[in-house]
Amino acid sequence: MLMRSIIRVPTTLSRGFATHTGPLSALPAVLHLKTGQSFHGRSFGSPRSVFGETVFSTSITSYTESMTDPSYRGQILVFTTPLIGNYGIPSNKAPINSQDVGVVLESEGIQCSAIVVADVAEKFSHHSAVESLASWCRRSNVPAITGVDTRAITRLLRDQGTTLGRLAIGADASAPAPASEQYWDPSIENLVDQVSTKHPYQLNPTGDIKIAVLDFGVKANILRSLVRRNAAVTVLPWNYDFNSVRNKFDGLFLTNGPGNPGQCMEAVSILRKTLQEWDKPVFGICMGHQIIGMAAGLEAYRMTFGNRGHNQPVLALASARSIKAGRVYVTSQNHQYALKLSDPFPQGWEPYFINCNDSSVEGIRSTPESGKRVWGVQFHPESAGGPLDTIEMFTDFLDECRVYKAENIQAPVDNTIDAATFMAEQPARVAVAA
Known about the structure:
Elements: H1 2-7, H2 11-14, E1 19-20, E2 28-33, E3 38-43, E4 50-57, H3 63-67, E5 75-79, E6 83-84, E7 89-90, E8 114-116, E9 119-120, E10 123-124, E11 129-131, H4 133-139, E12 144-146, H5 150-160, E13 163-169, H6 191-195, E14 201-203, E15 209-215, H7 220-227, E16 231-237, E17 251-254, H8 265-277, E18 282-285, H9 287-296, E19 300-316, E20 328-339, E21 349-355, E22 361-366, E23 374-377, H10 393-407, H11 419-422
Parallel strand pairs: 4-5, 5-8, 6-9, 8-12, 15-16, 15-17, 17-18, 18-23
Antiparallel strand pairs: 1-10, 2-3, 2-13, 3-12, 4-13, 7-11, 14-16, 19-20, 19-21, 21-22, 22-23
Helix pairs in contact: 8-9
């Protein structure tokens, strides 16, 4: 009894350990799936109803990074982790310099259409938190539902695949479920065009290696991973005519992005010409990987389930710098489409990684005999929430660019593109939520 009295924490002190989110909405909310199931709960975000593609993520942490990832554009995001919001939301401002790109999270705002959680935290605690998850959703006009069985939803999505859905809030929650033809399919739209930058912009212009980045919906940590390795980065719109300026750069990077790669055939055509005529290093992630594959002659297809979460194992089929053949790497992923594994593979290309769970293609690369230096991976080496098993692929890419540059020293070229257009957006920015 004496010991209990000694270690008991005073009530006044314990109140400082967490911040209450404030009163949550009493509005009813319902998640309707096109396959006929409905899940009733209560709203804690914006009081508006939305349609979207219902997907789930197995990430245990980093809900802030997931929600601001442009690859989740048009999607109703279900978190399998039961408690969400317990460490709040940080300020999303960061400097723009050789170490950072203007934001703390993955873009300037929430990108997903809505979120679904089993239990939203009513208190949050973190040294960098400035507001609650509920407050952030309301301020960002993003609807959210809590009090539903996310285990049951996840099992349904796991069994029947990604499903179109509607999150109905308030008065809409008491209305009948939408008819089948009323559900909106985001894959029919060019989501990449919605999240890509509209004008070129530069980051870390004094870096020692000049990298062009085709923005299909870039995550900020991709840009961060490049500038922190001393790359001078120029971010271009997804359909920019790269071939008109390619000789001004030492390498090309293709980013992640949302939706169907079939909506980006303009970029595929541009890249096909690049791969045929340009020998400098090229690296693509997620959507960028699919664009590279399609330019090489592979087909992309819609997966039944997709892969989302921070625990996807991939097997390396070849060795290259930091990657060792035969090793399994744990990766972060967020994609609904993948490249088809064809036999034979297009001439000059070979599989690089394979998924250990579903045997889908997780990476491709140009063969040594092709004379090219091109790689693409379906996963995210830069994952802000981890794991970081493959983070050194950024170092590998930039080292290849530096080697090629050193081997092909030539007279300096004009490093401007079109000053009036090129510097149209200052300060530099990453993909902005509409």
